[in-house]
């Protein structure tokens, strides 16, 4: 695991929230001492946790305060009865042992109070940390999806600009492919740039290919067929095909899926001459 993966694992947030064992905390401190980027990330987590605790700090519930007072009273013992003025002048002798016992009792009370407050704060902060981490993960996923969508839109926009520029190029020839006698309703259009040799095809007017079959574009040069590429789908309006160096005509045949080396003439659907 590299340092970035270690930082993204969430162990630094758990350390800041006090959710690790002593051994796990030692491991985090060792990583922070060895790698400056881990130390910086840990310091950020500690500062964020401190700021979060200050922002979201809440006063203890009234019933918690009452429970603490009752506990103090039970530890300190019952209150004494009122005394007369004469009795008030009597100064009782307190032994050092009694003073030490009383001091220990008050330290125990303070320790209990701090323990209760610390436990409540840790539970509260841990629950909020889990919620924050969940929200952060959801936000990161949304950002990734948004970035992917933006990238896809940019790619489509660039592709559309390239296609539009090719179609507007004076060197681009539009070849209308008409249906042969067996398929009079079929049509297609080929755009061939005689300078760059790029070829685009609009197959949207072809009938859907049967299962296991696929349309294939051919360029006819000096009486020989040249493979110009397979038609991916007739649902698309414009598809980029293979470059064609020379052509007197274009034709489309129906071939087995994956295409053929030579066209199946009996399965020709459309054809058109490439002439100015």
Automatic annotation (TrEMBL):
Residues 110-264 form the Anti-sigma K factor RskA C-terminal domain. Keywords: Coiled coil, Membrane, Transmembrane, Transmembrane helix. It comes from the Bacteria. InterPro entries: Anti-sigma-K/W_factor, RskA_C. Pfam families: RskA_C. It comes from Rufibacter radiotolerans. One of its GO terms (cellular component) is plasma membrane. Residues 136-163 form a coiled coil. This is Anti-sigma K factor RskA C-terminal domain-containing protein. The lineage of its organism: Bacteria, Pseudomonadati, Bacteroidota, Cytophagia, Cytophagales. One of its GO terms (molecular function) is sigma factor antagonist activity. GO terms for biological process: regulation of translation. The chain crosses the membrane at residues 106-126.
């Amino acid at each position: 695991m590299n340092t970035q993966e270690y930082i993204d694992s969430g162990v630094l947030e758990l350390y800041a929230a006090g959710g690790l064992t002593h051994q796990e905390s030692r491991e985090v401190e060792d990583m922070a001492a060895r790698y400056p980027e881990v130390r910086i990330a840990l310091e950020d987590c500690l500062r964020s946790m401190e700021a979060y605790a200050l922002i979201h700090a809440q006063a203890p519930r009234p019933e918690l305060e009452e429970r603490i007072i009752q506990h103090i009273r039970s530890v300190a013992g019952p209150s004494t009865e009122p005394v007369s003025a004469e009795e008030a002048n009597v100064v009782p002798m307190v032994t050092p042992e009694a003073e030490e016992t009383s001091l220990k009792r008050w330290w125990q009370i303070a320790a209990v109070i701090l323990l209760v407050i610390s436990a409540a704060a840790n539970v509260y902060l841990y629950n909020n940390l889990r919620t924050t981490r969940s929200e952060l993960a959801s936000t990161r996923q949304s950002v990734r999806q948004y970035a992917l969508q933006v990238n896809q839109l940019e790619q489509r926009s660039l592709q559309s600009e390239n296609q539009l520029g090719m179609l507007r190029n004076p060197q681009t020839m539009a070849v209308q492919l008409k249906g042969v006698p067996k398929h009079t309703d079929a049509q297609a259009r080929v755009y061939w740039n005689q300078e760059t040799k790029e070829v685009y095809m609009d197959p949207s007017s072809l009938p859907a290919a049967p299962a296991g079959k696929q349309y294939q574009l051919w360029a006819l040069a000096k009486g020989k067929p040249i493979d110009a590429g397979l038609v991916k789908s007739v649902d698309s309006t414009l598809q980029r095909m293979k470059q064609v160096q020379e052509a007197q005509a274009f034709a489309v045949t129906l071939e087995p899926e994956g295409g053929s080396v030579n066209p199946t003439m009996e399965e020709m659907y459309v054809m058109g001459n490439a002439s100015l």
